[in-house]
């Protein structure tokens, strides 16, 4: 299945680059420019292994790592291939996103805003700001910033795990969130979000929200305000790596995937799953509170990711028996062997 996933991702990358005026994939160039990102999951995995070996006081850590790689070289090759595919296709997500307003100009914001006002009796941001003042806004803003390292750990886990069924399911769902939800659904539901509502529509409906955030920013350096200004500036210049789109929310979708991955390995009745559920809620609330998204943006992402995750589970279940001979303990990135005792696991 990983071959099919990689083929789809690379094909989409070619299409997105063609759409943006670039008619070559240029994988070597992309990989060369993004090599720190390409190697980050590998460094994180090695760091995790090193920390566990230090804790257990192994005398020859390099020999232990070499044994891991030698025992299952196909696992390591598979992980490196997926690293290369993700690094090569990641720019395609932004390239496509940049073209959305050129293909279908933003139109859905007033429809979404009116729908939410009818459901909640007012715009949802008014409800969140009635609960969270300056300090609550700072907390939500800082939690929102944590999204990138959390997502990086999520990608690392999916790439480095030795559980081939879980790996295929996880990577397929991540690509679904990025490309199907983040690009194609975003194109069909072209929207800019409350933060840019006045800029693109000339309507001051969300001006009170932005005025409140800017007032908070003057006292507490709200990162969302600074980033939104920077992003709009880059968007005007058409630079790769930026792009404006609200529906659906990839921040909420990827955070929800973190909870899905964890609860699929250790269940949901535990502290870690509970904390992650709270974090998903915080990102969803924060996306509305900080003007990035509408409430419905997060709902669509959660429902879409959950349905696709469930579908891949049904599809891969009959294939799980094919990998039983190489499958380690759930979620483990390394085998449990006599010369590599239990406890030195990662992923």
Automatic annotation (TrEMBL):
Transmembrane segments: 35-54, 75-96, 143-160, 172-197, 240-262, 274-292
Domain Inositolphosphotransferase Aur1/Ipt1: 138-307
GO CC term (a single one): membrane
Keyword Membrane (UniProt): yes
Assigned keywords, A-Z: Membrane, Transmembrane, Transmembrane helix
Record flagged with keyword Hydrolase: no
The protein's name: Inositolphosphotransferase Aur1/Ipt1 domain-containing protein
Species this chain originates from: Croceicoccus pelagius
Lineage of source species: Bacteria, Pseudomonadati, Pseudomonadota, Alphaproteobacteria, Sphingomonadales
